[in-house]
Amino acid sequence: MTSFVTGFIIFLISHSANIFFQNLKTILVKKVGLLLWKTIVSLLAILGFVLMVTHYQEAKSFSITLWSPNIPILYLSYILNFFAIWLLVSAYVPRNVIKLKLKHPMILGVKTWAFAHLLVNGDTFSIFVFGITLAWAVFSFRSARKMASMIATDQGGKYSIHASAATFFIGIMIWLYIIRAGHEYLAGIGLLITT
Hints:
Radius of gyration: 18 Å
Helix content: over 70%
Shape: globular
Structural class: mainly alpha
Distance between the termini: 33 Å
Order of helices and strands: HHHHHEHHHEHH
Strand content: under 5%
């Protein structure tokens, strides 16, 4: 449990500079450079993620189940998670329509992902984890919009149909992999519904 919580805190803090300590980030970037800053943040995020994934089942064993989702809610969560993955992928593909129109697709993807998982996880541990993640994403999105309003950014002009289509199909492939095998491999929970 301690290892998961430690990883969870490290992961959130590594992505929270713009929300809680923008001034400290500015000072550190000036001292060590933007590249080193991003490297440190990325390594912390990876460390936190690894701790979370490898200790998820152990941490969840201490949880109390309050409710269980029905089949329609499960399917709704699958659909929401597809959109979450699509948004996350679009954050990395240049000139796709989602990124140009929504500005902050990664944060929106995290919000959608957290909400989808809250729908289908009625145990106290999951409510804690995904609830905090959803709250973090809300604050992060507000902070990103505030920064964008103060700093003029180049969004790359017109969107590319090819980039937009590639984003969609990559999202589909990742989503299908996660449903068929990826989620069970990472979290130890299979998603295929058998009757």
